[in-house]
Write a structure and sequence with these properties.
Number of strands of chain B: 0
Helix content of chain B: over 70%
Helix content of chain A: 10-25%
Number of strands of chain A: 33
Largest sheet of chain A: 15 strands, mixed
Structural class of chain A: alpha+beta
Radius of gyration of chain B: 20 Å
Structural class of chain B: mainly alpha
Distance between the termini of chain B: 43 Å
Number of helices of chain B: 9
Order of helices and strands of chain B: HHHHHHHHH
Shape of chain B: globular
Distance between the termini of chain A: 86 Å
Oligomer: heterodimer
Strand content of chain B: under 5%
Strand content of chain A: 25-35%
Chain lengths: 538, 185
Amino acid sequence: MNRSDEFAEIREIADCVCNEEVSPEQVQKLEALLANNEEAQRFYYEYIGMHVHMKASNDPQMEMVMRRTQVDEFIVRPTDTSNWKNTSSDQIPQIAGPQQNSSKNPIIWILATACAILLTYILMQDSNEYIGEVQAGRIKDLERHLYPEKVQAGEYFTETDVRVKFKNASTLTLSSDTRINITTPNKMHLEKGSLKFIQESEKKLNLSTNSYKLLSPSKSIKVTQSSNSSEIIVNSANKFIPNRWRPKHYWSFDDTSDTVLDSSGEAHGILGKGIEKVKGLVGSGAYKFSDEISDYIRLGTGGGVAPGTGTFAVVDGVTIEALVKTDWDGKFMNSDEIFRKDHNSDGEGDGELRMLFCFQNDYDKKHVFPKDYKLPALSFGLFLVGQGYHELKLPLDGKNGRPTLEMLKDGKAHHLVATYDVKTGKKSIYIDGKLLMFHQYQQGTKVLSGGPGLAVIGNIPSIKNEAFNGLIDEVAFYDFALPPFMIEYHYRNTQKGLNYFGISPNANKLPEKLSMKLPENQLMILDPLTGLPDSIKK
Amino acid sequence: MASDSQIVKDNEAISKTDPDLFVSLFESDRNRLYSYIYAYVMDHTAADDIFQETSMTLWREFAKFEPGTNFSKWANGIAFNRVRVFRRKNKKLYLGLSEELMLSISESISKEGYSETRWDTLQECRNHLREEDQKLYESFYVKNKKAQEVADESGRSIFAIRKAVHKLRKKLFDCVDRKKREGLV
């Protein structure tokens, strides 16, 4: 049996396909007939192939032309129209193709005219999709693999500096080596590189990068984004939404339950016997600690079972933040713990994989910076891979802008922050929004943290001489280093009676998104990891 | 997604591409490539657009093609992607085979192998057609007339003309198949 008889049903539909008269029902039937039948699929393909071949063998001779101008083009077109010959053929090197014939067949003219009309129609259709045009430079359309003169929605890469004028008259200037996804003239995602946007419409620009989003009606916006650096300058009101800002754990102490609510994670605290709920330094509640062994809040292990596990384990860095009113006596060999997390589960601490932020006056430690410092200090200890347990001391000596202990005991709340950034290797301590002490480790030095040991606020349950004396409020634990601008921003918010994030104090869970406003007309350096503002470039 | 260095590398490679090699491979494969596209989209206007896009992409990507490997298979992959992109952008093009079936057909034809040389015998088969069929072929495939035009000229109904064209295709297809079986292709 001939294949055409074997697959008669397919052939009938294929005939309709050849005639361009196929119906949706026939296509559906064809799908069913071809499904899981390789022979049938080959027959259909070859039958269509024969039709195309017979049609093509009598089509006008075609030539292929390669033009190398600003972009490469590949064109298949009829060869026997004098019209083509007249288009400055000396500028169009013909690289191949059959010999041109000189016939003046009117059918060819009609065909060429029809093609031109069709092309014009297609271009007019396409032009509706264009949102702007390239005024200068070379931009690559990454989806279509073209170097277009007109820009439509899509992903682009610049090989030179590029200027695009949008239909709404706004202008986008991109530096070379920029990758950007343009959705509309007012919505774009900058993957990497630099852009300058001059806004001529009344709409807000919706700009995103991998680390933040910005909504702004600003008339001028400049942005640079890479894995190592991020900068932005906006000249008017804006709504800035960083991707990563939320602490891993946050205890505002404003809840009224028997436990201590974690408003960001699940490390809800259990109160020790001795501590007392008092009016908050911010918000409704804080806890008063009285230098007793039972004055602690147990926060649990964060689910850690081994080093590097649990919610207190960090990869990119760490920040411990608290509002404190201290009554520490500053005596030799006395400490007041604000936050502590040990590795061991026996409650004794192991002196190694420890994370500790406290007031401290001790000596004779091997791994302390500044070396041999023996007076009252604010201390931040971490276990760093390749270094061991290291403490950074902020001497409370009244020198170089640092406060004395007496200055901290002025009866007011003070904002204390300890950070470590793995990428930069910088360990820092801030008081009231100001960086007052730091130590530089080798960049990329990791923290060994987490594990089955207890995290506590105020004291480790078994140690008497490290119990805190005073008020603690608004404790937050982050798995990244808060940048300096944000620490000052948090401090300023507390001075306005708000929580760190500029929200009226409450006991609710923190929102998933946080928006803030960037300063206008200032070149803002952003942290490329989190998208958080880092500092203002002078 | 290609890295920046990859893009730069591609651009450098393009400048070294051998246009003569491309033209010879493309020229011998373009009818087959058009059939491949048309078999899926079933619409000449769409197929023309996709074919043009595919041709351009083939040229731009030709630096990645390894001479000595199967050009048709490589071109099919690019055409397949262009069909998918075209369909996503042109929701009006509701006809055509599903992507799943497109993939299946691609695999079927790549297993068996497919050569345009099978159509070399078409002229010979055409010569063996009856005079009436010769005229029909002339009208449809040489003069590019529509069925209605042929019906008007011949005084037959359009249905009769369509049926005759279908028979003509069948005869030619069977003839080519027979010659292939006889080892003449």
